[in-house]
Structure formats: structure tokens, C-alpha cells
């Protein structure tokens, strides 16, 4: 018997989506503020460019490594435990981490190493929260509504891209405005006592996680019922490690899914330097042009980030209203990804600020379309009770090269021209996607469930240690 979503499941999903969006925006707000803190407070000089690249890379790696290391465990965990409770606990832990970051900023004791530790802890909670949320909304909405729900999910990140840069720049500037007399009254007096507006972004981050946790207390989110965890008489109960291997085995026995993952693996390797090198390119390569346009570094970076976010929101809204392709969804992944590589080349080589901004718009516009189609494929091919394990292994494979690309960005960004590094990596993405389209017919059958199940049934070997 097929699973039936709750009658008011989409309404519950919308509430969770809205409140979790606040926490995503709060986190993005803080991360953007930390980038500004590094580039303007810690390593502001041109001769510190190499140190800045390494610091930005260290932040990214600190966030990425826990995701990879804990992802499979988190996936197996949410297939065994109540997913709503998991999200509540992880949001509560994030509140505590936010308070720690806020305290260090207020005492002017924050260092790069302590920031990286906090980001690693944030990422550790996020991987369990994400595993629980990603598998929960597939049980709240019907399969027909999944593409729209996925479009809404993708728009979270894009919406944070619109709001976070401008809001972070505003919050950071408030204490200075108060000291200059632009903000009066009790609020102005209070803001004038704050030495660095970065603390305001950290405070908002704490508030958003608290709202997300409290809201979940009043909602019902179903978790799948598993019968294979109950041990029969004389038999040993299945271990969580065997659960992890089952997720890997599910993918291993379905080569088209594995090919799709390999494509994302290469894309994540090639695009990881984009986020690391972008602040450096804006500060140095595009400086002459944005200065001529009347921008400061903070406003230029915020403008670029906001326009990028608008592109993502438009792409997400398009997916939410259109619903995506009904057949051959893989084409809505490979073709935009190939174009994204070309766009990254242009972004890397241009010295024109507005052209670079337009390229970031197009990259962000394509991301929700690619990711929503990919998520819909995986959700329709994977049983609900397996999704936590399978999705965790999926993320591990797709994102395992991200830290490598980040390390490369820190190394290459200090030695070579950062724009040239982005251009080379963009060319790699385009070549791989075109190769998959032209020479790999198996990946084009990734949505054929009967074909995938036949491949799985005929596979002779299972993954085992």
C-alpha cells in the first residue's frame, strides 16, 4: 500500500518551511558578517591576501568536514528516531552556540581558530537537522506536490542571499551611525556602546533558532515506522552501521543514480572555490570598477550577494509555480549545470562589476532548478523508510570533494590569479556535463524506476566490509 500524506501536510510543511527559513537567514547573516569581519578587521591589507584566502578556506572547511564525517550517521539516526524531536534538539543546541559566539564578540575575544570551532559545531548540528528536515517534508506532502515543495526549499537559500548581505551591512553600520548622531534616543545610545555591529548579527541568529525550535513544539511531523529494527527471537538487532551500509548499497546497485552523484561531485569540486574567492575578487579584481560606481567594499559585496539572492528566489519561485519537468528531469540538471560552468568562466575573467553581478544572478537562478529536479528524482526513487540513510550517503558522495576544492581555493588563491582559477574550474564543470549528455545514456534513464530496480535485483555484489 502506497504512503498517503496527511490531509493538512502541506500546511504543516509551509509553517516549518517559514520558520526554518528564518534560521537559515540568521545563519547566512552571521556568515556574511564573519566574511566582512575577516576582510576588514583581521586581514584588511593587500599583502595579507594569502592569509585571507586561507582564513576563508578554513571557515569553509570547518563547516564542510562535519557534514561529510557525520552525514551517514545522521541519515541512519533519523531513520530510527523521531525526526521532529531531532530538529528541536538541534535548533536548541544552535541557540547555545549562537550565545557563545555572541559572548566572544562582545568580549572582543573571537579568533579565527575559535570561529572555526564554532562553525564546525554549527555544522554538526545542521547535518542532523538537515537529515531530519529533508526526509520529513517528503512525508508531509504528496508526491505530486514534491517538485513545488522542493522549489520552496531551494528558495530558502536564495532568499537568505537577498536579505542577508544587505541586512548584515546595515546591522554592522548601526553602531557607527549611532555614534555619528544619525540614530538618536535610547536606541541610539545603546547602539553607540557597541564597538562592532557584528554582534547584532549574532544576536539575530540566536533569536531565529529559538523561534524555529519553539514552533516545532506545536506541530505534528510523521516519522516512518520501521519493522526491521525489531529483532526476532534469537537474532541480533540490526546495528546503525548496517543501516549506513544499506544506504550505500541502495545507490551502488543503481548505477544511473551513482552517475548523477558523480556529476554533482565534480560540480562541487569545481564550484567550491567560487564562494571562497568571490570576496577576494570583489575586493581586488573588481575594485576599480565598483569604486567608480560609488560603492564601498561592504556595499559592493552586499549588492553582489543581494542580486545573486534575487536570482535564486526567482529560480525557486519558478520551480514552485511551474513544478518542473515531468519527464527527463535529468536534462534540467545537466544542461543548466553545463551553462553554469560557462558563466563561472565569465565571472572569473571579467573586471566589470556589473557583469560579474549578472553572472552571479544567473548562477543562483540555475541552482534551485537543478537542485529541485535532483531532489525530486531521489525522493521518487527512494522508499520513505530508506531516505535518511540513502540521502546521507548521497550527500557524502556528492559533497566529499567540496573540502578539496576549498583547500585548492585557499592554496591557488594565494599563488595564482583567483579569476583564472575560477575560469579553469568552470571549464571542468562544462566538459563533464556535456560528456554525460553525449556519451553516457545510462544517466538519462535515472528516472526509470523499473529499470533501476531491475539493475538492483541483478547486481550480484553487495557493499560489505
How would you describe what is shown here?
By secondary structure, the chain is mainly α. It has a single domain, classed as MFS general substrate transporter like domains (Growth Hormone, Chain: A). The chain has 17 helices and no strands. The protein has helices spanning 9-42, 49-80, 83-106, 112-140, 146-179, 185-192, 198-216, 240-252, 255-285, 287-292, 297-322, 331-349, 353-381, 387-399, 402-415, 418-439, 449-458. Helix 12 (331-349) packs antiparallel against helix 13 (353-381). The protein is globular and about 70 Å long. 52% of the residues are buried.
Q: Helices and strands, in N-to-C order?
A: HHHHHHHHHHHHHHHHH
- CATH C-level class is Mainly Alpha
Proportion of residues in β-strands: under 5%
CATH architecture: Up-down Bundle
| Name of the CATH homologous superfamily | MFS general substrate transporter like domains
Mean pLDDT: 85
Name the overall outline.
globular
Low-pLDDT regions:
none
Query: Which structural class is indicated by helix and strand composition?
Result: mainly alpha
Number of helices: 17
Q: How many strands appear in the DSSP assignment?
A: 0
Number of domains: 1
CATH topology: Growth Hormone, Chain: A
The major pleated sheet works out as: none
Q: Give the N-terminus to C-terminus distance in angstroms.
A: 34 Å
Percent helix range: over 70%
**Rounded Rg:** 23 Å
Amino acid at each position: 500500500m502506497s504512503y498517503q500524506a496527511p490531509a493538512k501536510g502541506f500546511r504543516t510543511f509551509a509553517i516549518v518551511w517559514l520558520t526554518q527559513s528564518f534560521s537559515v537567514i540568521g545563519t547566512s547573516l552571521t556568515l556574511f558578517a564573519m566574511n566582512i569581519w575577516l576582510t576588514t578587521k583581521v586581514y584588511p591589507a593587500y599583502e595579507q591576501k594569502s592569509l585571507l584566502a586561507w582564513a576563508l578556506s578554513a571557515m569553509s572547511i570547518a563547516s564542510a568536514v562535519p557534514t561529510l564525517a557525520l552525514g551517514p550517521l545522521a541519515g541512519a539516526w533519523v531513520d530510527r528516531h523521531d525526526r521532529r524531536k531531532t530538529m528541536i534538539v538541534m535548533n536548541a543546541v544552535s541557540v547555545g552556540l549562537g550565545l557563545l559566539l555572541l559572548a566572544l564578540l562582545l568580549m572582543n575575544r573571537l579568533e579565527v581558530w575559535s570561529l572555526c570551532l564554532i562553525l564546525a559545531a554549527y555544522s554538526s548540528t545542521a547535518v542532523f537537522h538537515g537529515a531530519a528536515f529533508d526526509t520529513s517534508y517528503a512525508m508531509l506532502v504528496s508526491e505530486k506536490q514534491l517538485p513545488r515543495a522542493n522549489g520552496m526549499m531551494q528558495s530558502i537559500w536564495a532568499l537568505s542571499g537577498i536579505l542577508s548581505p544587505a541586512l548584515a551591512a546595515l546591522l554592522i553600520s548601526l553602531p557607527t551611525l549611532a555614534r555619528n548622531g544619525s540614530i538618536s534616543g535610547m536606541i541610539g545610545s545603546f547602539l553607540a556602546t557597541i564597538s562592532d555591529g557584528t554582534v547584532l548579527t549574532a544576536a539575530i541568529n540566536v533569536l531565529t533558532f529559538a523561534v524555529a525550535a519553539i514552533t516545532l513544539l506545536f506541530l505534528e511531523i510523521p516519522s516512518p515506522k520501521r519493522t526491521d529494527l525489531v529483532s526476532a527471537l534469537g537474532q541480533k538487532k540490526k546495528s546503525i552501521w548496517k543501516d549506513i551500509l544499506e544506504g550505500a548499497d541502495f545507490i551502488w546497485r543503481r548505477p544511473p543514480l551513482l552517475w548523477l552523484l558523480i556529476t554533482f561531485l565534480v560540480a562541487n569540486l569545481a564550484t567550491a572555490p567560487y564562494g571562497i574567492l568571490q570576496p577576494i575578487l570583489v575586493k581586488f579584481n573588481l575594485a576599480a570598477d565598483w569604486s567608480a560606481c560609488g560603492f564601498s567594499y561592504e556595499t559592493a559585496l552586499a549588492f553582489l550577494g543581494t542580486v545573486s539572492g534575487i536570482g535564486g528566489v526567482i529560480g525557486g519561485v519558478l520551480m514552485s509555480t511551474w513544478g518542473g519537468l515531468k519527464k527527463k528531469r535529468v536534462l534540467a540538471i545537466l544542461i543548466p549545470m553545463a551553462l553554469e560552468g560557462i558563466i563561472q568562466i565569465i565571472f572569473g575573467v571579467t573586471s566589470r562589476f556589473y557583469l560579474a553581478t549578472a553572472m552571479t544572478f544567473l548562477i543562483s537562478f540555475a541552482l534551485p532548478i537543478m537542485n529541485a529536479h535532483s531532489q525530486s528524482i531521489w525522493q521518487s526513487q527512494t522508499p520513505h523508510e530508506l531516505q535518511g540513510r540513502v540521502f546521507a550517503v548521497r550527500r557524502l558522495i556528492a559533497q566529499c570533494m567540496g573540502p578539496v576544492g576549498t583547500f585548492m581555493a585557499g592554496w591557488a588563491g594565494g599563488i595564482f590569479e583567483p579569476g583564472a582559477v575560477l575560469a579553469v574550474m568552470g571549464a571542468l564543470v562544462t566538459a563533464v556535463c556535456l560528456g554525460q549528455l553525449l556519451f553516457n545514456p545510462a544517466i538519462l534513464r535515472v528516472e526509470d524506476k523499473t529499470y533501476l530496480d531491475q539493475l538492483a535485483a541483478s547486481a550480484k555484489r553487495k557493499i560489505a566490509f
